[in-house]
Structures are given as structure tokens and as C-alpha cells.
Design a protein that fits this description.
The complex is a heterodimer. Chain A is α+β, with helices and mostly antiparallel strands. In chain A, about 25% of the residues lie in helices and about 35% in strands. Chain A has two helices and 20 strands. Chain A has helices spanning about 1-25, 220-250, and strands spanning about 35-40, 45-50, 60, 65-70, 80, 85-90, 95-100, 105, 110-115, 120, 125-130, 140, 145-155, 160-165, 170, 180, 185, 195-200, 210, 210-215. In chain A, helix 1 packs antiparallel against helix 2 (about 220-250). Chain B has helices at about 5-25, 180-215; strands at about 35-45, 45-55, 60-65, 70-75, 80, 85, 90-95, 100, 110, 115, 125, 130-135, 135-140, 145-155, 155-165, 170, 175. In chain B, a hairpin with a 5-residue loop joins strand 5 (about 80) and strand 6. In chain B, helix 1 (about 5-25) packs antiparallel against helix 2. The two termini of chain B are about 20 Å apart. Chain B contains two helices and 17 strands. Classes of the chains: A alpha+beta, B alpha+beta. Chains A and B meet through helix 1, strand 1, strand 3, strand 4 and helix 2 of A and helix 1, strand 1, strand 2, strand 7 and strand 14 of B.
Chain lengths: ~260, ~220
């Protein structure tokens, strides 16, 4: 009967694969999305019979299971934007944002906006660290190293530049282990290591580009190929179940 | 007692074992670094026995995923782990102390013990397994071994007697897919079903022959 359960684990694994592909493809247009890959591992082996004169006893595996998911942090495409509050990181690192609850999140999605008081926030209203307030009527200017300033037009038509400090970004020792929280946000975990808070261009973090967003790094063609292999894998495992069933039927037919 | 029916039974059992093995191979068609299992039929005193036929040693496909701590081995070799096992699954990560470990936390060994990188440092691994850090320079060299009597123990781990002199190369930012050949698996599956059926026919005719013999006596 083991063959049936082994094949069933194969079907389940391919099912998980399809579910994950569905999520990747669905996020094909999500800014700052990083595709996820599944990792499978084999299950325990059982030794059958005893060691024969000429060789080892046979080892039979009991199938497969999902070992974990890993995120591919390859850079996404650069999407040009006309909004002054849109920005992207051109290398590793994350924007740091703070939820109203005080919790800190990390994101690659630089699709920001300003709230009524001029605070730079995410679309959900989470404030961008270390807290940036753009004066009313001011135009935000972000340089590659993360320096923020606002050009304010005075009543006499003269433009004055007001410094607003510097953007803060975070890097992680093991970003693959960050916990995805939905809303393009990640949460730090023990496995990801402590966040290194720095400024863009420092400590291995990427630089900032204003008027641009980072597109999803999902490659639809690649996902479709994975989907075909998962679908075929599912089918193959189901054929094994069929074959095992037929063989058991044959065995049952022995006694007439 | 007639022996033909038991000879046929051993044949049917061997065909069933073959199916179990194919089932395991197909289920692991997505498993990182998996090696297809083979089986051998052995003739012992008029009966057939299924025995270990080794593992297919050709490399699985290279799956690029751009993760710095993911490695694939090309050629005959295994990564040595701190828990005394070996693996071809290079899905590694850095733990909070900067140590290179497997996904379940077993340290990956270099020639001089565990590989540890500085905080925030990026690591580069050469084809020969040399690990270089962006800040601290030369960190060590991944320990690649050949494995005599390699036996899988689950969770993509193997045991066996390690031998030096592996000429395998390492590819960074990629993983090795399963080397299972689905087409071969299907051929074996058909073969196993038919072999099983044939043995059943032998058992039936042996049964019929004895039934007739009993009638003659009666």
C-alpha cells in the first residue's frame, strides 16, 4: 500500500507548486513583489528485507514534502513614474515604514504618498522612516544617496530648498527569511537577522531613484513552464496510483 | 509442496517493489538535489528478489534562483554538514550569527569547519568552492566529498563514507533539480504492471493444474 501514499505525496507536492505559481502570476503587476520558489525534500527511507549476498537490501522512499519556500530578491524592472513620491531602490535593501501601531515593516515598494499633514507614507498610511514632512506646496527632491529636500516656491516667486534629512533603509543578513505580511510589507524574523539601519548607498544597500517604481520580478514565461511541469508531475503521480490500484485488483483476482 | 507458485509470488513481490520505487522517484520529481533510485532483480534459489540497484549519478537540471546562499553541485560530490550527513541540496542560508547553514540549521562545513561571514557582508563562491566575503576576503573553502556507499536518509540528506578528491564544481545562485527521468519512470511503471500480471497468470495456471490433479485422484 505504501506506493499509493508515496504517489499521493507527489500529487500534494505538485498541488502546492501550482498554488505558489498562481500566487506568483497573480502578483505579476505588484510593485516591489519578489517571486517565491518552493523547495521540496525527500521523506524517510525504509529498508526492505535483509542484505543479500551480492548487494544491499533495498531502500524504499516514502515520498516528498515541502521543505520551505524561498524568495528570489532579484531586482524587478524599472517602471518610470511621474509622481514625486514614487521611488525605488536600485540595489539590495528595504524602505523602512512604521505602522500606526508602532510596528516596523520593511518594503521594496516605494509607491509613497503624502498625507494631509505632508508626512511621507505608504499607500496604507504607514509612515516612511525616519519621518519626513514635506512642507505644503513643496516639491520633494530625493537624491541617489537618500538626501531629502523640498523646493518651496515663495510668495515672490523665488525657490528655496529646504533640507528634510535623509531617507533610512535597512539591509538584512538573510532577507530570504523575512516574513511576508501582505500589503508588500515584510516583517523581521530571528532567522533573517537584525535589520542594519543605514542610508541608501551605504553598507551594501542600493541607491534611491526618484520618479521610478520597482516592478514585480515575476517572469510569466518561467512560471508557465513551472506550471506545465507541475501539471505533468501531478498526472504522473496519479498514474502510479492507478497502476498500484490495478495491481492490487489483479492480486485480489487470484482467488476465483 | 509445489514451488512454482512461490516462485511466481516472489516475482510478483519484486514487481510490487519496483512499483514502490517508481512511486518514490516520481513523487520526488521536484525535490532539490534528488537522485533517481534504481533497483536490481536477483535470482536466489529459484526465487526473484528485489535489491538495491544504486542511484543515478548524472546531474539534475540547474535551476537558477539568484539567491547568494544557494548552491548547486556539478559532477560527483556532496556538501559535508555539521551533523555528519551529506547533501546535494544547496538551499542554504545564513543564521543570525552569519554562519552558513542548511534550512533546518545544520552548519555547512568548509575545509576548516563552519563558514561564517561578517555582518552585512555578501559572499561569493567560486566554482572550486572557495568562499570570499565582500569585506573579510578569503573565508574558506566548501568541503566537497565523494561518498562511498551513499545511502539516502530523508530530508535530502545522505550518509556514507566520505572520500576526498571530489572534482565537482559549485555554481552559486542556483539549485540542482531532481535528476528523475519521468519517461523512464513511466516505462518502468508499465513494465512492473505487466510483470505483476504475468506472475498472477503463472499462479493461476499452477492452481488450475493442481485442481485438475485433485479431480483425477478423486
Amino acid at each position: 500500500m505504501r506506493a499509493l501514499y508515496t504517489a499521493a505525496s507527489g500529487m500534494a507536492a505538485n498541488q502546492v507548486k501550482i498554488e505558489n505559481i498562481a500566487n506568483n502570476i497573480a502578483n505579476n503587476g505588484t510593485t516591489g513583489f519578489k517571486k517565491v520558489r518552493e523547495n521540496f525534500e525527500d521523506l524517510v527511507y525504509q529498508q526492505l528485507g535483509s542484505r543479500s549476498a551480492s548487494g544491499d537490501a533495498m531502500q524504499v522512499g516514502s515520498g516528498t514534502r515541502l521543505a520551505g519556500l524561498s524568495r528570489d530578491f532579484k531586482a524587478g524592472d524599472v517602471l518610470q513614474s511621474s509622481s514625486q513620491t514614487d521611488m525605488m531602490l536600485t540595489g539590495p535593501g528595504f524602505f523602512v515604514v512604521e505602522a500606526p501601531s508602532g510596528e516596523t515593516y520593511y518594503t521594496r515598494d516605494g509607491n509613497f504618498r503624502t498625507d494631509l499633514e505632508g508626512n511621507l507614507t505608504t499607500q496604507l498610511g504607514y509612515r516612511v522612516a525616519p519621518g519626513v514632512q514635506v512642507p505644503a506646496g513643496g516639491t520633494l527632491v530625493v537624491t541617489a544617496d537618500g538626501s531629502l529636500s523640498a523646493n518651496v516656491v515663495g510668495s515672490d516667486g523665488s525657490v528655496t530648498s529646504v533640507s528634510l534629512g535623509s531617507l533610512e533603509v535597512a539591509t538584512f543578513q538573510n532577507p530570504e527569511a523575512l516574513e511576508a505580511n501582505g500589503g508588500n510589507l515584510f516583517r523581521a524574523t530571528d532567522a533573517a537577522g537584525e535589520a542594519t539601519r543605514t542610508t541608501p548607498g551605504q553598507d551594501g544597500a542600493g541607491q534611491v531613484q526618484q520618479y521610478a517604481l520597482e516592478g514585480s520580478n515575476v517572469d510569466v514565461a518561467e512560471e508557465l513552464i513551472s506550471m506545465i511541469t507541475a501539471q505533468r508531475g501531478y498526472e504522473l503521480s496519479s498514474k502510479v496510483i492507478q497502476a498500484a490500484d490495478e495491481m492490487l485488483q489483479t492480486a485480489a483476482g487470484l482467488r476465483r | 509442496m509445489s514451488t512454482d507458485i512461490y516462485a511466481a509470488y516472489s516475482g510478483a513481490l519484486a514487481a510490487w517493489r519496483n512499483l514502490e520505487m517508481v512511486s518514490g522517484n516520481i513523487a520526488n520529481a521536484n525535490t532539490t538535489g534528488f537522485r533517481e533510485q534504481r533497483m536490481r532483480f536477483e535470482d536466489t534459489l529459484g526465487a526473484v528478489q528485489a535489491t538495491q540497484g544504486g542511484y543515478k549519478s548524472t546531474d539534475g537540471p540547474l535551476v537558477t534562483d539568484n539567491v547568494d546562499t544557494h548552491f548547486a553541485i556539478r559532477g560527483d560530490g556532496f556538501f559535508a554538514l555539521g551533523d555528519g550527513t551529506f547533501t546535494r541540496d544547496g538551499t542554504f542560508r545564513l543564521d543570525p550569527d552569519g554562519r552558513l547553514t542548511t534550512k533546518d540549521g545544520a552548519p555547512v562545513l568548509g575545509e576548516g569547519g563552519a563558514i561564517t561571514v561578517e555582518r552585512g557582508e555578501r559572499l561569493t563562491v567560486g566554482t572550486d568552492g572557495t568562499v570570499t566575503g565582500s569585506a573579510s576576503g578569503d573565508i574558506g573553502k566548501l568541503r566537497l566529498v565523494t561518498l562511498a556507499g551513499a545511502t539516502p536518509v530523508g530530508e535530502n540528506r545522505w550518509t556514507g563514507a566520505p572520500g576526498a578528491g571530489s572534482v565537482a564544481t559549485v555554481v552559486q545562485g542556483a539549485l540542482e533539480g531532481s535528476n528523475v527521468d519521468p519517461m523512464r519512470c513511466m516505462v518502468e511503471l508499465v513494465e512492473a504492471s505487466r510483470a505483476f500480471e504475468a506472475q498472477q497468470k503463472v499462479m493461476q495456471s499452477s492452481d488450475e493444474a493442481r485442481s485438475r490433479l485433485n479431480q483425477m485422484q478423486g
